[in-house]
Design goal:
- This protein is an all-alpha fold and 81 residues long.
- The protein has one domain.
- Helix 2 packs across helix 3.
- The two termini are 18 Å apart.
């Protein structure tokens, strides 16, 4: 059972790392290409963050943002032993 959970954790950590790298690549491509980039990643990220801490945001939104940041920050060490 423990081996199965460790395998699932390793796969989830790997997928998360790939997706976060892809988001970073999209942000860099938008910085390089500007408005001609196919996706407006920076505006989308700003919209997500403003949903947590912008106008009309609540304390629950800020707490949720902090929890997400702590969870994503911890995934970098999931597969390391």
């Amino acid at each position: 059972m423990k081996n199965t959970l460790d395998t699932i954790k390793a796969y989830a950590g790997g997928i998360t790392s790939v997706l976060l790298s892809f988001i970073g690549l999209l942000v860099i491509s938008q910085v390089v290409f500007g408005a001609s980039a196919p996706l407006d990643v920076i505006a989308n990220l700003q919209g997500i963050v403003s949903g947590f801490v912008g106008e009309g945001a609540s304390l629950a939104g800020v707490i949720t943002l902090l929890l997400l940041v702590s969870l994503l920050g911890g995934c970098g060490s999931c597969s390391k032993k």
